[in-house]
Every structure is written in C-alpha cells, then in structure tokens.
Amino acid sequence: MSSHREAPEISKDPVADSTDVYAFVSPDDCDTVTLIANYIPLQGPAGGPNFYEFGEDVLYAIHIDNDNDGRPDISYEFRFRVEVRNPDSFLYNTGPIDSLDSPNWNRRQTYSVTRVEGERRRVIAEDLSCPPCNIGPLSTPDYTTLANEAVHRLADGAKVFAGQRAEGFYVDLGSIFDLLTLRPFQQLHLMPAFTEPAPGVNTPKALNVHSIALQVPITDLTKDHRKPTGVTDPLATIGVWTTASRRRARIIDPDGHNTESGPFVQVSRLGNPLVNEVVIPMGKKDLWNSQPPADDKNFAQYVAMPEVAKLLPVEYPGVFPNLAAYTKPRADLLAILLTGIPTGVVPGFQNFTGDTQADMLRLNVAVPPATKPNILGLIAGDAAGFPNGRRVFDDVVTVELRAIAGVTIPLVDSSFTPDAAAGVITDGLTPADLKNPYLDVFPYLGVPYDGYHNPSN
C-alpha cells in the first residue's frame, strides 16, 4: 500500500514496481500540473555498497488520457543509463560527492525523456543527471544542494527530476494486514487480543523511494491545448497513470550479464491508490498489472462489491450494521475509481471522464490549489485533493477506508445512512507521523533519509 508489493510477480521485481502516482495542479505554479511516479518500494537508507537506482532495462512511463477512452493520448517515457567510472572498485563513491559530475561518484545514473503523442515520438531531453542516493554526512555532505542541481528545466519550460526521495506515503501496514486491524478501533475487533485503542504505526517511516517527477504546463496535457477556466468544462479533466515495462525475452549469459530482446511488455501499473492492493483478488493481480485502464470493465465487479466492505462488519461485529445490510453494487465506488464523479453529485465539482471504466487518477485542472489544504481531500470539502488527482500529503488510506465503509453511498443512494463508525474510521496516521517533511516546491517529496542516521526504520 499504496501499491507496494501489491501483486505476486511484481513483488519479486521491485525496480519495476510502481508504488505511488500523484497528479495535482502545482501550488507554486498554477499554470502547471505536477506528475510524480514512484518506484522501488521500502528502501532502507543504508543500502550500500549497491545503492538503489532505476533499472536500465525498464521502460518507465507516465500516461495522460485527455479524450476519455482509458488509453494514453500523451505519454512521457523515461530510460536510464548507468556509467561506472572505476569498475575495479567496489565503492559507490570514493570520496565526498559534492556535485553531480563529481569524480568521486563511481556509479552515476543519467536518463532521457521522450514525449509520445499519437504516432509522434519526440526526445525532449537527454543525458540528464540523477542525484546520488543519500549515503551520509561524509559521502553526501550537502544532499539538498545535490538534489536541487538534479531539478532540470527543459526547453519548453517543463521541470523534471528523477532520483531518490523520502517515502511520503504513510500507512500502518503491520496492523491492516493483520486481519484488518485498525489500531484506533482494535478493541472492537472480533479477535479478543486488544482491550484498548492505540495510535497508528507508520510502517514506511524513514524509508525511501525513487521518484520521477515532471511539472508541465496544463496546456501541454489538455485535449484542446488550452487551460480550462470552468470546473464544469468537460475538457477540464485528464486521466493519469504510470507503468513500467520490460522486454519480452531475457537471456542470462554465463558471464552474469543479461541480454534482453523483443517488444516491451507492461509488468506494473498504477492509477488510484490501493486498487490492486486491496480491491483486485489474488488470482487477478498479475493480470491487472499487465492490462491498460481501457480494459478495466473486466475488473469492475471487484470495485462494485469490494471484499473489504464485506469484511469490516465481520471483523468488527455490531459496528457496521448498515454496511452489512447493504447489498447493492457500489455505484459510488465505481464512480470514484472508474469513471470519475459526474456533475451534480458533489456541488460545484466534477471530474467525470465518461462511461469507459478505467482506473486512473482523474484530475480536474480547473480546480485551483487549496489555500488551506485538508488531507482528506474531497470528502472534507477540499476539491483540490484526492480523489481529484492526488497530492503527496493526501491521506488516501483514510479516504478510501471511509468510502468503502459507506460514507460516499448517500451521494448516489439517498436511502442509505452510513454507520457512525464510517465517518471516523482510520488507520490512525497523519503527515505528522512522517519524520521528513514534504517540500513546498517541486519535486515536493522530501529529502531522502541517509543511511548513517537512519540505518533502519
């Protein structure tokens, strides 16, 4: 969670594992959208001597659908290359790394960015430097400066960054996957192991990820290449998701190197948080990762009748009686996750993309950044937050738990009254449970934890 180790096969291939995707109107430049795709989950900062890096053999991509068919109209593709300066040394660095071209940095990584629009492919940047991983006070004594140097401004005014960042997603994995225990309500659980509530525990605390962040003009992403001014404009909403792909064939050579050939095959994808993690059943997870959003009608049954909604009344007897009695397909979840929210459901808001059921983050780019953001996003009246896109600090676990528990059913079925617990259910975490704060400017995710001070979480 959000999409860390979410399917059997991709859990064995962390370099290609999409962990989170974010899309929001940039608060520091409201004429742009920021897109962030994270990979390589649950990185311990003390990961030497072979520190984490993007895969040279992986095609990473961020996709945008602007004509509502669940297929990419615009894609940004990222390919990475590693340069080893001294193959006879085991060291990642032989001294302090004080710049991106430091001769002390033995394993430097660079990348290219290609914009794909229809049949047109255009390389918009080449040989861009990633920052090194954050090793410690001797090896990376001024990491913030190194990271700032790795924010590249492209010719068309866009910004791009690719490298290690602090994990910004907060979740109590240890409790949730222990028979859906939620520590703030654990004394109400079916299993008599707890007698009182407890605060949540942030499992990814002090861990890192690798991020690809892109800030582009809104007019580069919309169908008619203009910036919408009205929230009700049907062209104001874009769909966003990320993928990772590998070559179809791999041959392991006797000298330990791999040879790859054939077309790229998608092995990971992510749109809305938690979908493959807790909605798609075990036997379909690997299949889901291989499919385009346009084919998500094949998985809609699991959104319409989510297993977690059935488990909550069982695991917490007597707490969710109204949810237990509700047997209709969940039209609210189908809208939130697969079609967007039509006009008239939430006053003054819509991010509807039509009848094609597709798992994408849907962002209405006409909604300005909030002056006082609420981490619960739309359900708390903050239309600039999830599920209108997703900001780095949004509490998507609580939002989706409350939606699954029934707080959003009255939006489509006025006969339903949510259980009292549905409006307060949470795993007990907020951004305050992160050690490393977010940034107010691009790339927004915080400076990664270093191995010297944070050997483990």
Topology:
Blueprint: E1 18-25, E2 32-43, E3 58-65, E4 74-84, E5 107-117, E6 120-129, H1 143-149, E7 152-153, E8 159-166, H2 173-176, E9 208-217, E10 237-252, E11 258-270, H3 275-278, H4 285-290, H5 300-304, H6 307-315, H7 321-325, H8 331-339, E12 361-364, H9 396-405
Antiparallel strand pairs: 1-2, 2-9, 3-4, 3-10, 4-5, 5-6, 7-8, 8-9, 10-11, 10-12
Pfam family, one: DUF4331
InterPro entries: DUF4331
Organism: Kitasatospora acidiphila
Report on the architecture of this protein.
This is DUF4331 domain-containing protein. Pfam families: DUF4331. It comes from Kitasatospora acidiphila. By secondary structure, the chain is of the alpha+beta class. The protein has one domain. 13% of the residues lie in helices and 25% in strands. The chain has nine helices and twelve strands. The protein has helices spanning 143-149, 173-176, 275-278, 285-290, 300-304, 307-315, 321-325, 331-339, 396-405; strands at 18-25, 32-43, 58-65, 74-84, 107-117, 120-129, 152-153, 159-166, 208-217, 237-252, 258-270, 361-364. The strands form two sheets. Strands 3, 4, 5, 6, 10, 11 and 12 form a seven-stranded antiparallel sheet that branches. Strand 5 and strand 6 (120-129) form a beta hairpin.
